[in-house]
Structure formats: structure tokens, C-alpha cells
Design brief:
The structure is a single chain. With 279 residues, this protein is α/β, with parallel strands linked by helices. The protein has one domain: 3-Layer(aba) Sandwich (Rossmann fold). It has 11 helices and 7 strands. Strands 3-2-1-4-5-7-6 form a 7-stranded mixed β-sheet. β1, α4 and β2 form a beta-alpha-beta unit.
């Protein structure tokens, strides 16, 4: 059983490799994990190409939703993107917040930070900043953000409760988040959950949908709403790397589901302290 730090190191190493891969390789795998499928289509990610601010150089095909589309970003907002990768969601958020706002992308993989900064420089964006850091300890001051977005990242983090507490801390009172993530309905087969490649691929690190929503509520958020939900179908040729044909048949016939959800939640406007337990 891996420790928290071992899991983080594994994810960091994998996403350092992903930063150097082509988008086509990432999209034909489990969120870029490298367990490539012969079924050539995007398993997780949605199509960003119609959104203002989209830049193909920043799109590595790693997301599982379109959180910026639902994030209600206004002109002049300060937006924080957790797990910002090569900058895809940050640049879309910048199109919404405009020149008078600011976007801060946080990622703990140095190769991703370097790639995102290069992309921002090419685009001439001076109000988009990328900081290296752990989203369990977001490197920004408290109550600074109007909106937090994240795309298929929290499922990779062992301490999800800690991340949600940090999101509460960095949001202004009355501010909100819109986060796309992978969740489960029913039990995931042990062989998938324990497979390191699948963990870095956004599936084995996922938790039950009800538990995910409960964590958000327990950390003081209100108006918790699922803005979009879709089932994720992992191709047989990926799952057969971890399951026998019989186990695969049982999995397909079970009520277990892997879902992409985009969740909205708001920090109470009257919140005057740093979290739900500090008052």
C-alpha cells in the first residue's frame, strides 16, 4: 500500500511525462496515463474548441469536463485554477475575466508549470500567473479568489478533504467554485483501484459520488449543485490490462459506474473565519 507521499511522487512523475506527450497520446489513454487504447477517441475530456480563449497548445486532453463553461466568471474576477497543467482552463478563464481580472494557475509538476508559462508568454498574457505548489497547501493568501476552477485533479489527491478546506480558505465570502472530477457509483474492482497507472489516470483515485458531495458540505460550502454529469466508458482493451475476461464481464454487468461530474458550491457570504470548524 503506497503512502501519501509515494502516491504524490508517482502522480508527479507521470504528469511530468505527460507534459512531453502529444495530445493524441493523452486522449487515447486513461486521462493521459499511458495505458493506450486502440479505440481512438477521447475517453474523459470534453471539446473545448468552441470556447473563447481556447488555445490548442495548452490543451493536453487531460480534463473530464468544462468547469470554466459553468463557473459564472465575471469581468475583473480573480480566478484560481487548481492543477492548471499547460494552461488550458486558465486561458479560457482569462477570456471571461478580461484584462481587469487575474488568473492564477497552481500545479505541482515543474514540467507543466514551464509549459504553461511558455504558452502564456507566446499569447502575451500578463494577467495569467502560474505557481508551482501543492493544492493541499494552495500558495495564495486567504479570501483572495472570486472563483476556483479545477478539471479532473482532485481525484488524484489522497487528501481530498484537505484540498476542499484550502478551497474554502482562498475563496472570498460569497465566492464559489466549479470543479469537474471523476467519481464512482458502486464499488470499483480492487485490481483497478490498486493499479498505479489507473490512479494517475483519474479513475482509481476517485471516491464515491455521495462521499465527494458530503465532503464539500462538511467543509462549510452551501448551494452544492451538480452542474453536469456523464458516464465514463473505459474501453475493454484498457480494462483487460487489469482484469481477466470473466472479471470484465462481471464488471460490465454490475451497477458500478464511473462518472464525470461538474460540481458548483458557494462559500457563505457571512463566513468570517477560515473554515467550518474555526468559529
Amino acid at each position: 500500500m503506497e503512502t501519501t507521499e509515494q502516491i504524490k511522487d508517482m502522480v508527479r512523475q507521470k504528469y511530468s511525462e505527460i507534459a512531453l506527450q502529444d495530445k493524441e497520446d493523452n486522449q487515447a489513454s486513461c486521462c493521459g496515463s499511458g495505458c493506450c487504447s486502440t479505440e481512438v477517441y477521447s475517453i474523459m475530456s470534453d471539446d473545448y474548441s468552441s470556447l473563447e480563449g481556447y488555445n490548442p497548445d495548452a490543451d493536453l486532453g487531460l480534463g473530464c469536463g468544462l468547469p470554466t463553461q459553468f463557473a459564472q466568471i465575471k469581468k475583473g474576477d480573480v480566478v484560481i485554477d487548481l492543477g492548471s497543467g499547460a494552461g488550458n482552463d486558465a486561458f479560457v478563464a482569462r477570456a471571461e475575466t478580461g484584462e481587469t481580472g487575474k488568473v492564477i494557475g497552481i500545479d505541482f509538476t515543474p514540467a507543466m508549470i514551464e509549459k504553461a508559462r511558455i504558452n502564456a508568454e507566446k499569447l502575451g498574457y500578463h494577467n495569467v500567473e502560474f505557481r508551482q505548489g501543492d493544492i493541499e497547501r494552495i500558495p495564495v493568501t486567504s479570501a483572495i479568489a472570486d472563483v476556483v476552477v479545477s478539471n479532473c485533479v482532485l481525484n488524484l489527491v489522497p487528501n481530498k478533504d484537505g484540498v476542499i478546506r484550502e478551497i474554502f480558505r482562498v475563496l472570498k465570502p460569497g465566492a464559489h467554485f466549479s470543479i469537474s472530477d471523476i467519481v464512482l457509483v458502486g464499488g470499483l474492482p480492487t485490481k483497478i483501484r490498486e493499479a498505479a497507472e489507473m490512479y494517475a489516470g483519474c479513475v482509481a483515485g476517485a471516491i464515491q459520488k455521495d462521499a465527494y458531495l458530503e465532503l464539500i458540505t462538511l467543509n462549510g460550502f452551501r448551494k452544492v449543485t451538480i452542474q453536469k454529469e456523464k458516464p465514463i466508458h473505459l474501453p475493454d482493451d484498457i480494462l483487460l490490462q487489469y482484469l481477466s475476461p470473466e472479471e470484465l464481464r462481471e464488471f460490465r454487468q454490475s451497477p458500478t459506474g464511473i462518472h464525470s461530474v461538474t460540481v458548483f458550491a458557494q462559500k457563505p457570504a457571512e463566513a468570517g473565519c477560515c473554515g467550518p470548524d474555526c468559529c
